[in-house]
Predict the structure.
Amino acid sequence: MRSEAAERADFSSIRYAQCWEDADVLLEALEPGPGKRCLSIASAGDNTLALLAGAPERVLAIDLSDAQLACLELRVAAYQRLQHSELLGLVGSIACERRGQLYDACRQHLSPGCLRFWDERRALIEEGIGNAGKFERYFKMFRTRILPLIHSLGRVSELFQPRSKEQRFQFYEQRWNSLRWNLLFRIFFSRQVMGAMGRDPEFFRYVEGSVAERILGRARYAMTELAPAENPYLQWIMTGGFHGVLPFALREENFEQIRRNLGALEWRRCALEEVLDQEERFDAFNLSNIFEYMSIEAYEQLLRQLVARSKPGARLAYWNMLAPRSRPESLAGSLDPLPELSAALFRKDKAFFYSAFVVERVI
């Protein structure tokens, strides 16, 4: 079975220099503990590395993009060679004037292909590798070109002050939710602009309805129901940094545990369908949001393959951003949805632009 996404989308450059999916809810969904074998979509590597904190027996990371795997491989080298604060500096989470030196310290741990990739992109390293993707440049344009037309730096700083839920709603409605916010947000996060500047246009093939309206609603949720002061994803989008509020894989308390378990990690460039043609069986699947890039028919066929390569009780976790995907009735005898767990985790998902988080268990 060929990958539908591989045939249509461009995977030649870094699309995501960070993983814009909340590892905290992913780990709670998959429970990647000792003895578990995990299959993970690599993306930029953050959530794949987060799985290692649970000390699983094996994590196999796959991606269609050499560029995305280069992001993962450089992060692995950084965990091997650097200290925690240096890792944050290399990523761009904190100010750093030594990124070139930090990269040089990691070079001996890189494969020849990865070494060529990053040696040709020294400018991206100097900016912080967490800024190196198309999606991050899209957010930077919003932060530097659009947001200043809506709110002052002072108002943006106010957004991240600790508040009660009632105070957050009040701030949003009275000081943030302006006509200009609604208008410019809808334009910038429209299907046309996001497809041209942020994501591949092919990723919208199966999306129906207004893209901007759904993302605007989720942004409101992140600013009111959730606490902006505790949200690293919102902070990076609005300010260009984490300011001490970090995603799971970058937190100091998880650094040594991830480093100790790097030996359990393997990565390869291939489609998910190729891995599932082999004999290995897995306990946990981090599937990112790959299903919205394919038709309902292709999605159902791939689910069948996943079930066939799962151990009993294995869990699948994936996000819907704009195209709804969840277990079809035809798989009711082999795949059990976990709606209460899915809903509970989605309510606290800090990577707010997704429309659903789906957790399912193999029967």
The chain has two domains: 4-67+248-362, 135-239. The first strand starts at residue 37 and ends at 41. Strands lie at 37-41, 58-63, 265-269, 282-286, 310-320, 335-337, 356-362.
